[in-house]
Amino acid sequence: MPTNSYDLVVIGDSFPGLVTATLCAKRGMRVLLASQGASPESYRLGPYDLPVRALPLTGLESPAALRVVGELNFTHLLRRRLQEYTPSFQFVAPNVRLDITDDNIALGRQLTRELVGNGAAEASELVGRFDASGLGLDAVMTLDAAFPATGFRSRREVSRAIEAVVAPEIPDGINPAVRALLAGPAAISSGTLDPITSDIARARALHTWRRGVARLEGGWQELHDIFRDKFASHGGEVREIWPEEITTSWGKANGLRTRGGETIGAEQLVAALPVDQLVDLMPKPPKRLVQMSESLSPVGYRYTLNLVLDEAGLPEGMGANVLVVTDPDKPLVGDNAFALYVAPPDDEARIHVVIEATCPKPDGSGSLDEALADLRVRLRERLEEVMPFSRDHVLCAHSPHESVEAEGLSDELAAIAEPVPLWPALPDAPLGLSAASYGVGLKRLTLANDQILPGLGIEGAFLTGWCAAAVASGGKRKDFLKDEFVTSAQ
To answer: Residues 204, 183: contact at Cβ < 8 Å?
Structure first.
């Protein structure tokens, strides 16, 4: 018999799972967040506090984020802590430097100036069409039905909304720098690699980046803490638990057994962990779950490099969020496309710069460690092209993904976390955005992780958390996985 029972148990530490747990606790459910000792989101190296990964907050004005933050009543709290910058971001390519905002007239003037008549008018029109296509995805995010759909009725509702979304196309012959501008934000932020990313994912990323790339002091760690505090304020319970098996009865999940022998009962379970780890927790995993696991394979990894420089190493006029493309004719991966997130100088005139890039999955002849080490060297070389002589001003350089000494700090060795894997959307996914589904083939067990909507970045994490909460909070009255009402008369 279970030693303790809950309305909902969320297993794992992914951000979508935390959103799900917090929403369900707010809705009056008794919720246990079964944490598995997530890796820290920041680390200390000498005198510096450094992030494991950057948190560029985009899409906060989208329906996916607004309804989560609005229901949890911390809209004003979050806005007070956000750091917003003008321009939204800078785009840098050979012989091109643009300050990007949501002002179409200003962008048109800049394109005319930078392209010097080389298709500037066509480029401005194309950017506008892309932006409008990205905005069209709001119709999907305002649905009560889950996206991706979980049953017949929700599939019908989602299909109608999808029909209204016009997927943009990048015509042949367009200026390569403009093509890179259209695809660049998605290549950095959406969790899939260019050119795998769908056109609608590119359009959505461009749309959200143009409306602002905000920063939160404390990054991912602070965002998790905000949600955990709200979760606790609604009676949610957090325990560090190492599950051994998800228990079932009559084709339904009903709890989990821990490695210590404890049995925890649950009316609903949400798996906020990767699909392959979920498979390992089930002696007889459902066929759908096995097939999903076999279809999911990372195509690359998100790589972070932290730099601390003295203020003299920062070029005049450099923005807080910079997207760099070194060769627009080549795929936007590795050192050919990377983001720079530049913090204001601290009290000692030091500048913290976070570099993020995507590292393609190595082929059979190389290891990931070798690929990351090579990427670090090439990124440092590319940085000199954007920030000349910055190498002379580096006080510290370190990646949390490599076991190497920090440059500038002798005897400081700190490998903190594995790089974040990047998941490709499935070929037949709606709008080319999803890689996994909420339903796993077992009743009362729902998936809520970063594999569901990788094509939408953090906006997708908010949407995933909301949809998974809708499934879990349906309780006995509605099985959202089948989208059928169940009454006591039945």
So the answer is: no
Rounded to whole angstroms, the Cα distance separating 167 from 150 reads 23
Q: Are residues 461 and 402 in the same domain?
A: no
CA distance 32 to 9: 5
Measure the CA–CA gap between 29 and 150, rounded to whole angstroms: 22
Distance CA 271, CA 17 (A): 7
Residues 414 and 433 in one domain: no
* pLDDT tens digit sequence for 87-112: 999 999 999 999 999 999 999 999 99
Is 0.90 surpassed by the pTM of this model?
yes
The rounded mean pLDDT for the chain is 89
DSSP-assigned states of every residue in 435-487:
SS-SB-SSBTEEE-STTSSGGGHHHHHHHHHHHHHHHHTTTTTEETTTTEE--
**Gyration radius (Cα) of the chain, Å:** 23
Amino acid present at 313: G
What is the distance in angstroms between the CA of the first residue and the CA of the last residue of the chain?
28
Residue 490 inside a domain? The answer is no
- For 10, other C-beta atoms within 10 Å of its C-beta total 36
pLDDT (mean) for 152-179: 87
* Those residues with Cβ within 8 angstroms of residue 18's Cβ, 6 or more apart along the chain or in another chain: 10, 33, 224, 227, 228, 231, 272, 465
Cβ 243 vs Cβ 351: under 8 Å: no
**Do residues 456 and 433 touch, judged by C-beta distance below 8 A?**
yes
CA 479 – CA 323 distance, rounded (Å): 44
* Domain range for 332: 301-422
pLDDT of residue 78: 86
265-280 residue pLDDT tens: 999 999 999 999 999 9
Strand partners, 445: 269
- Distance, in Å, from the CA atom of 271 to the CA atom of 261, rounded to the nearest integer, reads 20
Residues of the chain above pLDDT 90, percent: 66
Q: Considering its fold, how many domains does the chain have in total?
A: 3
pLDDT in tens, 302-342: 999 999 999 999 998 899 999 999 999 999 999 999 999 99
